[in-house]
Amino acid sequence: MESRVLSRATAFASSVPSLRKSSPRHPAAVPFAASPRRPIGAVSEGGNLIWGRQLRPALLLEASPSPSRRDALKPSRAAAAGGSDSAGEAKPAPVGFLGKYPWLVTGFFFFMWYFLNVIFNILNKKIYNYFPYPYFVSVIHLGVGVIYCLISWAVGLPKRAPMDSNQLKLLIPVAACHALGHVTSNVSFAAVAVSFTHTIKALEPFFNASASQFILGQSIPLSLWLSLAPVVLGVSMASLTELSFNWLGFISAMISNISFTYRSIYSKKAMTDMDSTNLYAYISIIALFFCLPPALILEGPQLLKHGFADAIAKVGLVKFITDLVWVGLFYHLYNQLATNTLERVAPLTHAVGNVLKRVFVIGFSIVIFGNKISTQTGIGTAIAIAGVAIYSYLKAKIEEEKRVGMAD
User: End-to-end distance of the chain based on CA atoms, in angstroms?
Assistant: First the structure.
């Protein structure tokens, strides 16, 4: 036994000088020391942590300092002490609880997306009941979101992505359509019931398909067009017997659908490698500048004359300010979570989730506000939602088949 130990110690001692001789004298000669180091958290690499996305291990290895010669000897010592060839092999890093159950994280994203969206719609409508100024409230939505983005950039979560003039030119049309769609949606929310606005907005896939076919020149399969028939039928049934119907709310919701359709078109032309959090922040900032002029021109004089005074007299200054801050924060977070959820799941799952989200919003708004709906309106809403679900399923399935075909 003693002879074996002595022989191993002698072998190890004789191996140390050979390592010293073979090691280079100058650190610059080390192969991996010559490669450039990229800073951890660079925006182009995704950042350390951007809304739940961790930095890739490869980047951490590339940015870590070069190991010293003493560190290079550690595996040999471990192997000598263990007396086994496999003792020096690297062990896999332990997987955390969330790593073992990623569906919990995805489920949490869906829950927060739904929860924030429902809370936003309810609080937004309550504000319009005592403060009917949708242009100004739209500015508040974007303004609070911009402040949130600036604070996030200041603390480095995420790191701000650089913006050049070319990217700015590509994002301006996207932000303009986003601003118009957002403002007209709020005009509709203020004019009619929340459930009716969301029923009209269920027509958005119809406008997307029409734009893809007649503007972008993309061929839309017949199955997709047929799936849109119940959407049009359902919205028409709901509109004919909606108790809160008025033309301002209806037309505003339709303009919102068209605006968001063009936003999708311009977004495809403005493809960028910027992460979704930074991209949405820049769009919000630009959209805010588009929303300010109409708010000041159309509602500014009324607000200064009696708008603010009436709202404060009804609910008080503190509640008025806190309601505006909270509704702006909920608006930004639910939109950001919708984008982050899309990055975690397949398009089909996200499409189905988006349809269910609309069902939740319509259902909760009816319960919370006690909106009375006729039987025909209820049936029409259900038919429209079912049509959107079928369309979303077919569209996501077709896109997935295209990706698989391109990969093969």
Answer: 60
